[in-house]
Design goal:
mainly alpha; Serine Threonine Protein Phosphatase 5, Tetratricopeptide repeat
Length: 440
């Protein structure tokens, strides 16, 4: 499958690189006399004449390792120091020295002295004619220790040396190399190697790790390859369904202007109860409004406020009020707009509240709200606010104030025509009422 999508400000969405674990190159089972080791099948790629690990040296190493495994590191170190003292060191062959340095490295690593461990592992591979398997294992450990210390370039270089020696690198090693390139910001090589790892697992019928897909997703996104980033996200949603992947997929579909799928991704997460933050629910409501389905948007906001998830900010109350209003639920819109206006720093929302009151035939409240907004200032279109105010005065039968307001609105070219129409209408309405009064 991954071959189809191989060639992500989550969003960036930040990618967590998998933590590097270090496997010690030599374990207690490796401390065996050379005579036994030679009985194993020889590596076909290289034949080495490795010196023997003599029994007396093996016994000392085994004693030191017993102390090390019991976490008696000082006692273990005393034995090893004796073995590599000036005279003792001369008596050890290269394979025996390699085993001493290997155990020294384990002691350093156990006390989190990673530099000391690295120095000793490098001494291991510096010894001539050590078994190839020992060299291969140790070189990988060296690479891992560079990564642990965030020495990315050295880690990549060391790992590439290991790749040259290794007959069949495993998928995890390709991921490790990918992480190194990622840290060096060589995203093309990072993507190439994590794709190899994912493909290896998929071909073998195994499920790649979530972190591998995540790294690939980020790298695709960084390249601007939205299609493959989405394809990777869809795999994550299939095997590792989490809120963050639904939200990220929604965002990417939004970038592709696929509004239906953008909404569907968020809606699926919402229906599963995954949207548990204010920003998530507000985004969900906006998507419903963009899709021209205001009633679900209003319900999302209402439920979020009742659950005390959505922040009680002016903008959020305004969104809820707008959703209810568009859903033709004026009476439910009013309390939301009242809260929005009360929390606002300017008068704009009071004028909008006045319009909601006007829609609900609450003319006195409309007059009070719009006048409060105009007095507070910061209204984007005072001319439009005055048109609404004039209509509210008119419906209250206050023609005098209505005229005053419409005359001020008429001074703005954008509202002049409409305001003058209202002035004529008021005049005709007054004349009609006066005529009716005379007839009576």
């Amino acid at each position: 499958m991954f071959n189809r999508i191989f060639t992500t400000s989550v969003l960036a969405v930040a990618v967590s690189v998998v933590s590097v674990g270090v496997d010690r190159a030599i374990t207690s089972l490796d401390l065996v006399p050379q005579a036994v080791a030679q009985e194993k099948k020889k590596d076909q790629r290289e034949t080495r004449r490795t010196p023997a690990l003599r029994n007396k040296v093996y016994e000392k190493l085994a004693e030191a390792q017993t102390f090390a495994e019991a976490k008696q590191y000082k006692e273990a170190e005393v034995i090893l120091n004796e073995m590599i003292s000036t005279e003792g060191k001369k008596a050890l062959n290269s394979y025996e020295l390699a085993n001493v340095y290997n155990l020294f490295a384990f002691l350093r690593y156990s006390t989190e002295d990673y530099k000391g461990a690295l120095d000793n592992y490098r001494k291991v591979v510096a010894q001539p004619d050590i078994p190839l398997a020992m060299e291969i294992n140790t070189k990988k450990t060296i690479a891992q220790l560079f990564f642990v210390q965030e020495q990315w370039q050295q880690g990549v270089d060391a790992l590439l040396e290991w790749f040259d020696l290794s007959e069949k690198p495993d998928a995890g090693s390709y991921v490790l190399l990918s992480q190194g390139y990622y840290q060096l910001k060589d995203y093309d090589k990072a993507l190439k190697n994590v794709a190899i790892a994912i493909d290896m697992y998929e071909v073998a019928g195994k499920l790649p790790k979530e972190q591998w897909y995540n790294l690939a997703r980020f790298l695709y996104f960084d390249k601007g390859d939205t299609d493959n980033a989405l394809a990777t996200l869809n795999v994550l949603l299939k095997y590792y369904p989490k809120k963050q992947y639904w939200v990220q997929a929604s965002h990417l579909y939004g970038e592709k202007k696929d509004d239906a799928k953008q909404l569907a991704m968020m809606e699926t997460a919402y229906e599963q109860g995954m949207l548990d933050k204010s920003t998530d629910l507000v985004t969900m409501a906006y998507l419903y409004l963009n899709a021209e389905v205001p009633f679900p948007a209003a319900l999302v906001m209402d439920k979020g406020f009742k659950a005390e998830i959505i922040e009680e900010k002016s903008k959020n109350y305004e969104l809820a009020g707008s959703a209810w209003r568009q859903a033709q639920e004026t009476q439910k819109s009013i309390p939301m707009m009242e809260k929005a206006a009360a929390k606002s720093d300017d008068g704009e929302l009071y004028t909008r509240l006045g319009n909601v009151y006007l829609d609900g035939d609450q003319f006195k409240q409309a007059v009070d709200a719009i006048n409060k907004g105009l007095a507070k200032g910061g209204v984007k279109r005072p001319d439009q606010a005055r048109l609404a105010l004039g209509m509210a005065y008119f419906n209250l039968g206050n023609y005098s104030d209505a005229r005053k307001v419409f005359r001020v609105a008429a001074k703005d070219d954008r509202s002049e025509k409409y305001a003058k129409q209202w002035l004529k209408y008021i005049q005709s309405e007054q004349e009609r009422q006066e005529e009716l009064a005379r007839d009576i």
